[in-house]
Each structure stands twice: as structure tokens, then as C-alpha cells.
Amino acid sequence: MKIYNSLSRSRKKEEFIPIEPGKVKMYVCGPTVYNYFHIGNARTFLFFDVVRRYFEFKGYEVIYVQNITDIDDKLIKQSIKEKIPFSEIAEKYIKAFFDDIKALGLKEATFYPKATEYMNEMIDLIAELEKKGFAYEKNGDVYFSVNSFKDYGKLSEKKLDELKTGARVEANLQKRHPADFTLWKKAKPNEPSWQSPWGKGRPGWHTECVVISRKILGESFDIHCGAVDLIFPHHENEIAQAEALSGKPFVNYWMHGGFLNISGEKMSKSLDNFFLARDVLKKFDAEAIRFFFLSKNYRSSIDFSEDILKESAQAMKNLYSFLKGVNYLSFMHEKACYSDEQLEFKGYFEDAMENDFGTAKAIAILFTITQKIQWYLRYDPENQDYKQYAHLLVELGRVLGFFSNLEEKLKQNLSDISEELIELLIRYRSIFKQEKNWKYADQIREDLDKLGIKLKDTKTGTEWSLDR
Ligand code: AMP
Ligand code: ZN
After folding, report:
1. Distance from C-alpha of 429 to C-alpha of 427, rounded to nearest angstrom
2. Backbone dihedral region for residue 368 (phi beyond 0: left; psi -120 to 50: alpha; all else: beta)
3. Is 115 within 8 Å of 68 (Cβ atoms)?
4. Cβ < 6 Å from ligand 1: which residues?
5. What phi, psi does 352 have (nearest 5°)?
């Protein structure tokens, strides 16, 4: 298995070797819960969900940690804006976070630790850094001294001299070096705070991820993930703290995903150019969103596009229609038993995924399998091999997170075309209504009613339901 490791100087993909055989310990920087997350954040969360699924498919036990930042500047600002305590803001958006990741079809992480649950441990770690000469206090704030850690800049390839020049504009005279970063922040009046050896305050975000990952996964673990914006300063500053203390490599593989952009610009809350994941989910099925993201390389940036989302929705629809067409329901519970040729296809899929998670190629292989099935149905209809290919299609699709409610979807007693026909009749009925042709409008309602299809007129249009 080859992984593009952002830490690798050669910028080459590296062979993945877990610290403990058969186990993968991974940590994904999670959300700051001051708002709903956007579809750009969803791209990152969703991709690492697939990384985890693939390792599990290969038989690894995966410990998957995603932290929740439930205290920081943005939360405090939002609590002032919404006029409720920061803890209630956090609670509200943590619930929303769980609702949204479930709706996106993400697997539950093994742990969702919250920053506020690790306050004592964070204070202890900062105190230890101070004791060992890696940190210093100035007027109630504590800073990490970048000059004290010789490898500072190794992930982002930044030099301390460059950082000195770059930071001049926002010079903080308390710091010994402009790149020194805050470990502990003194509380301003009325801000939420915790008691510490340096007075009342709160820890910085970079300390949070170090403390939580060390506590749950140990001083060294396998994979640390996020999008590229986290390389500097967040992940660089995590490495500095962790390795200053342990003297060992903090993380063996750093994986960073590309951005989801809007018109070429990073989707972000601060630029106000975002769509919330929950809003996109109102328009598009979770699997269409998944298809859209996975059909591109995870490291390249992509532009958000409703047109491509529509195409992705159609592609997913085609896969489902295909499985309906071969009556997969009638044999889905039979045990799969693959021939050498089918195992070869499985091998191609694994090769694609093991080349730094080539999900786009993996998806292409799913479609090649559908072509194979079509070939059998057309040229060798008596041969039952097509069933094994259908099993393979579903098994591999599930590794990518597709087909989660397959049985239900296949059992839906209305085909898409029937739904479209009902909607067509509703459109005709509304034209009749606009033309005040009540007779035909009512006739359509009555005829549909006889078929067990009930119409309900609402402010936003006519809704239909099955009444059987
Ligand atoms: P944040 O809440 O901003 O810390 O972001 C949570 C996660 O989403 C982090 O891993 C970020 O790197 C990632 N992220 C933020 N914006 C984007 C974007 N436009 N595209 C992809 N990932 C993003
Ligand atoms: Zn983090």
C-alpha cells in the first residue's frame, strides 16, 4: 500500500507499514463546533472515511479518532452573537455535526474526544514543555519557542528566517521569535476560562490535537489527516510540541486532502463562499455527493459544481437501476464465490486503492464490472457467472461507502420512471388549475387517488404520497 506522505522529502509515495501489525491508528482533525460544517469540510471527512473503510476491508483493525473543538475564539464570538453560553453553542453544533455526518453516510469514529474534556492534560503538557525549556510565559500567555526545537518547519518546509520576515506585520513584542505560537492564552474579562499555573485562560488549538492524539493513540501513531490548509501552522505546531517532548516521530504518515473550491477559491466560512453540507444534502443524495468527491483525486482541488453533482446522481442511479435490472434482490443473500477472473478484477480495484487511494480509478473498475455483467446477459445468458460479478460490484462499491441501504433501495416498489410520471401528471394538473379548468384538474386527482396516490397542495407546490 502506497501513501503520499506530506512529510516525505522525496515527495514520493511511500510504502505503508503500520507501527503495530494489523492495526491502523489514525487521527483526523475535526470540526470547530461554532456553526454547521460546509460541503468543503465534508469532502475531507468523507475521503478519510473511505481510507478507513479500505483498511478495514483489508482486515486491519482501525482506531479512528476525530476530535471536536468545543472551545476557541470562533465559538466565543458566536456565543456573543447568539447570546448563549459557549457550551450551549457547542452542544447545538455537536448535535448538528453528528446529524450531518450520519446523513452523509460516514462511519462512526472509534472516538470523538472533545477539547474541554482534556483541559487538565493540556495544562500538564504545556507545563512540561515549559519545564523542559521549550515554552515560556509572558504576562499570563504561554508560547512555544520555535528556536528550541531544531526540526521546526520540517513538514511545511518553512525556514525560521522566512517566518521572521513574514510575521513582521503582526509583530507581537511579547514573543522571542515571531513564529513562536501560543500554547496558553490568557483570558480576557468575561471569557470562559480555566485555572492554570499561569492564571486563568485557555489552551490553543495546536495543543488540543497533540494531547488528545497522544492520550488515545500514544506518542507515535500511524496516520494524521486533514486538508492542506492544516499543514501550516496547525500540523507543524503539533509536531513541534509532540516531538519536543517525546524525542520520537509523532506521526509516520501525514495525509492532506485538496480543497473544494468555488470558482477557483477555497470554500470557507471566512470568505463567505460556502454551501452547508446539510443544504446540499437537501438537493442531492449522500451517495451522489460521495460519487462526486471520489471520482476525483483526493489531493487535487476541485470546483463545486451542481452540474457534476447531477451527473454523479445519474451515475449512482444507473448503478442501482443496473442492480434492479439483474434482479440482484433475488440472489443478494447467496454467498459470493469468485472465480480467478473475478479475483483479478478485485485485484485491479485493490491496485487502484493501494496507489495512494486512487478512488477515481476504483470507481471506473466498478463500471467495468457492470460492462462485464452486460456482456454475460447478452452473449451467454445461461451462464450464472454474472451473479458473482454483481456480488463483486456490491462488495467493492461498499468499500467506497456506496450501497449502504441497498436492500431497501432495491425493494422500492416504484421505479424512477413511475415517480417521474406522477410528477408529470402533477405538472399537467397545475397547468389545468392555472387555466381554471377545474374539471380536468380534479379528474387527475381522482384518478391518482384510485391508484392509491394521494395529492396534497401546499404553499410550495403539490406533494404526493403512496396510500396503500
Ligand atoms: P475547520 O472546521 O475549518 O477546522 O475544518 C475542518 C476540516 O475541513 C479540516 O481538516 C480542514 O482542513 C478541512 N477543510 C476546510 N475547508 C476545506 C475546503 N474548502 N475543502 C476541503 N477541506 C476543507
Ligand atoms: Zn488538529
Report:
1. 5
2. alpha
3. yes
4. 29, 31-32, 40-41, 43-44, 226-227, 229-230, 259-260, 266-268
5. -65, -45
Q: pTM of the predicted model, to two decimals?
A: 0.88
The residues that bridge with 453 in the sheet, in sequence order, are 466
The span from the CA of 313 to the CA of 308, in Å, is 9
Q: Taking 80 as the threshold, does the pLDDT of residue 235 lie above it? A: yes
* Residue 18: all three cell numbers together: 503500520
Beta bridge partners of 24: 62
Q: Which residue has the cell 452473449?
A: 379
pLDDT one-digit tens code per residue, 434-466:
999 999 999 999 999 888 888 989 877 888 887
458 beta partners:
461
Distance (Å, rounded) from C-alpha 431 to C-alpha 422? 14
Q: What percent of the chain has pLDDT over 70?
A: 97
Identify the bridge partners of residue 144 per DSSP, sorted by sequence position: 135, 181
* Domains of the chain in sequence order: 2-266 (3.40.50.620), 305-410 (1.20.120.640), 419-466 (no CATH)
Pocket test for ligand 1, best of 26, 94, 229 (most atoms within 8 A of CB): 229
Q: Can you spell out the DSSP letters for 302-348? A: EE--HHHHHHHHHHHHHHHHHHHHTTGGGTTTSPP---HHHHHHHHH
pLDDT in tens, 299-314: 999 999 999 999 999 9
Q: Which three cell numbers stand for residue 69?
A: 473543538
